[in-house]
Amino acid sequence: MKTLPSESTVLRHLHGTPGFRRITLALFASGLATFTTLYCVQALLPALSTQFGLTPAASSLAVSLGTAGLAVGVIPLTALSGVVGRTSMMTASLFAAAVLGIAQAFSPTFAVLLVLRALQGLALAGLQATAMSYLAEEIDRRSLGFAMGLYIAGNGIGGMAGRLIASFVLDLSNWRWALAVVGVVALLCAVVFRVNIVPSAHFEPSPPRVRHLAGAVGRCFTDSGLVRLFACGFLLMGCFVTVYNYLGFRLLRPPFALAPVVVGLIFVVYLAGSISSTVAGRLVDVLGRPRMLPVTALITLAGIALMLPSNIVFVVIGLIVTTAGFFAAHSVASGWVGPRAATLNVQGPAVYLFCYYLGSSVGGSLGGLAYGSYGWPGVTVYVGALVLGVLILAFTLRKLPQAQPR
């Protein structure tokens, strides 16, 4: 009778192997579904503001509540994935999020929509809490940067697709149909994920021990490098979600006065994020994260500055540069957390995602106050300060001892 191969004899998947291709396709689809559903409402914020008589900051709660649900759920669902398994958790999360997305189309009030958005974010937490751990367990370290870059690229294309689909459907019908169509797209992505995902070979089940989990989370904050990476995630996402939450309001008003469908087309620049995250993943494998993170922060700052003039050409170029810089920086920072946390045996990836999506909820809402009080110049100063913080943290991270390869 054959015995199953042990942990030590089962090789991790290397770039170019069939397992690597299946895993990256599945995780690409999961990232596509996550960002399609999570951020499609950014294209609908002006319509929701008009429909329910809301200020831009109030309508942005449709984004903030979704990311808040994700932030709240990411740590406990990380622990739960240690019991039910990585692939089971990710599969259940994707299908639940798709169903909740379709249900949002039938929301009778804005309050009901917010509740469903929070539940959808909670569902997606199961995927986000597990995906980076799954990649760290199953992908060879030499290919991990590239795999992480492809996963983030799926996020980028999903963010673009969600906004484009929502914008086009909104132009033809209304926000309800837009949410319904996005929900169906997410359901198809969940099917692609389920068909292609490779079962875990290096996953070791563990019971949900609350005290142990609290200790593993608490130990994260004893490492100054991880704390700085968590802060980078918080600040980066606060910047990025603010730009995309309120840019639509800016472009719909004078001096731009663009049609909603044209504003939606501008979100094609999200492709820059998919390209930059993949390129950053490759460069990390060659140059290392300490060199890459400051460069990506500087690129993001340059994009923010370019968006300030009331000229559509500068706005589009600036948005492309900002998007590319953000996704590259997130790819570098999130990929840095895993190896460092593994060395310390702590829940680093889960805490990073908690801070990252908390940055979306808190940072995006505060960005609405900046926009409401001072317009786009206020947004520029606000998000510029956030990214400047990332740049300072990136330079200090270069001086710290780096995690050793496994």
What's the number of extended β-strand segments?
Answer: 0
The largest sheet is: none
Helix content: over 70%
Order of secondary-structure elements? HHHHHHHHHHHHHHH
CATH superfamily label: MFS general substrate transporter like domains
CATH level-3 fold name: Growth Hormone, Chain: A
Instruction: List unreliable stretches of 5+ residues.
Output: 1-8
Specify the CATH architecture. Answer: Up-down Bundle
Task: Walk me through what this model shows.
- This protein has 406 residues and is mostly helical.
- 80% of the residues lie in helices and 0% in strands.
- α13 crosses α15.
- The radius of gyration is 20 Å and the shape is globular.
- The N terminus is likely disordered.
Keywords:
406 residues; mainly alpha; Growth Hormone, Chain: A; 80% helix; globular; disordered N terminus
Q: What's this, in brief?
A:
The chain has helices at 18-39, 45-52, 56-59, 61-84, 86-104, 110-138, 141-172, 175-196, 210-220, 224-252, 260-266, 271-287, 289-306, 312-344, 348-397. With 406 residues, it is an all-alpha fold.
Produce the secondary structure layout.
Layout (H helix, E strand, L loop, with lengths): L17 H22 L5 H8 L3 H4 L1 H24 L1 H19 L5 H29 L2 H32 L2 H22 L13 H11 L3 H29 L7 H7 L4 H17 L1 H18 L5 H33 L3 H50 L9
Family: Belongs to the major facilitator superfamily.
Protein name: Inner membrane transport protein YnfM
Subcellular location: Cell membrane
